[in-house]
Amino acid sequence: MPLSAPTQPLPVTEASRPVSADRIVRVGILGCGSVSQHYMRHLRTCPHARVVSLCDAVPGRAGALASEWGVTRHYSDLEAMLDGEPFDLFVNLAGMQRHESLNLRAIEAGKHIWSEKPIANTLQAGREMLDLARSKDVRIWGAPTVVESPQFAFMARALAQGELGRLTAAQATYGHLGPDWAAFFYTREGGSLPDLGVYNLTFLTGLLGPARSVAAMTSIVTPHRHIQGTGEIEVTEEDNAMVLLEHEDGVLSHVACGFNYFNSEDHAYTGQDHHTITVSGRTGVMKLAGYDWGPHAVDISTVDRPAYTRCADAPHDYVWECGASMAAECLATGREPMFTPEHALHVVEIMAAARESQATGRHVRLSSTFRLPLIA
To answer: Is the pLDDT reported for residue 34 higher than 90?
Structure first.
């Protein structure tokens, strides 16, 4: 498995050092749409977290969620939330275009951050965000958490043990027909890459190591979309993308994602078992069953055991919405998650490079990296 030079992680400081194993981390959530229900359910199972405040700019939405879950404080804007009920961990579930600015403001206010993807809109802004977090003695993490699944762990260990021989290539795909409940998926700084491709890019770079360069083509297949409560909008960001990554030692990987992929299961993962990721080597191949954010198993075939063997198929607790709970656990106990802000920002740079490649017709070299291996 290719290794890269380690980067400097955010330090453990007085603000981030755990007080005790039974410390309760107070959580404030911004963004009370449908995704918040998943986060609320998971945070309620976390012994280290307590949701103390909710915020949403849509009138009545924060109050409704607060009433449903018994949260006593709710607000209609971030400044009121920051001035209100004290909390430790800011959970950012807003539209993707607002993550960067909201994360920066919360860091300025001394809050730890868990952010839905993407963590920032550009690599430079993300690096400035990490510098600010260090100066404020706070921690920051961002989705997705796909490297935490048992299927990722199985595949990483198989590669480290040489099960596939000389590693050569990987392919991944994720697509559906596109959401119709919000316009931000299709407008500036939205698109299929930060909404869909981000999962595969995180999974593959976690397995194969940081990308060195990117070549890509993106397009808009459906130029207008009908959005509930809004009507027809013009699509300005890609809804179709093919991204080719160069890793170390000649290893190549490819991600296809888009909002124009028919799928009889839509993008639900319950009961869905088709292969979405394939990793190939000279003496073996592995295929991930299910999406990387909702995986079921790994099928592996090697030169010594040509018939596919199903592995890593035991029931497990991994869910895509676990990140805020794991961040709270880290703050309370010091147990570090495998996802890091450096990895999230590497993926941000890949997505920006893919768009640059489409615009220029060139391969784009990358400058960011992150610590490997994720799985010992």
So the answer is: no
Q: Tell whether the model's pLDDT for residue 206 goes beyond 80.
A: yes
Q: Could you give the CA distance from residue 260 to residue 143 in angstroms, rounded to a whole number?
A: 23
SS3 44: helix
Q: In angstroms, how far apart are the furthest CA atoms of the chain?
A: 63
Same domain as 50, residue 136: yes
Q: How many domains does the chain have?
A: 2
Say which residues have a Cβ less than 8 Å from residue 127's Cβ, sequence separation at least 6: 345
On whether both 191 and 294 belong to a single domain, the answer is: yes
CATH of the domain at 211: 3.30.360.10
How far are the Cα atoms of 115, 199, 227, 335 from residue 235, in angstroms, in the given order? 25, 22, 11, 42
> Please, which residues have CB within 8 angstroms of residue 320's CB and are 6 or more apart in sequence?
38, 143, 144, 145, 146, 293, 294
Residue 160 predicted with pLDDT over 70: yes
The phi, psi pair for 365, rounded to 5°, reads -75, 150
Q: Select from 113, 205, 189, 106 the least CA-distant residue to 355.
A: 189
Nearest by Cα to 329 from 1, 4, 15, 18: 18
Q: What is the pTM of this model?
A: 0.93
Q: How confident is the model at residue 272 (pLDDT cuts 50, 70, 90)?
A: confident
Task: Give which of 156, 195, 155 is closest to 174, Cα–Cα.
Answer: 195
- How confident is the model over 192-209, as a mean pLDDT? 98
- Does the pLDDT value for residue 13 go beyond 80? no
Higher pLDDT, 263 or 348: 348
Q: Decide: 344 and 186 in contact? Cβ < 8 Å.
A: no
Q: Please name the residue that has the structure tokens 């993550």.
A: 99
Range(s) of the domain holding residue 138: 25-145+323-336
- Pair of tokens at residue 96: 């993707």
376 versus 253: the higher-pLDDT residue is 253
Q: Which long-range contacts (CB under 8 A, 24 or more apart) does 130-133 make?
A: 130/10, 130/341, 130/342, 130/345, 132/104, 132/107, 132/108, 133/10, 133/107, 133/341
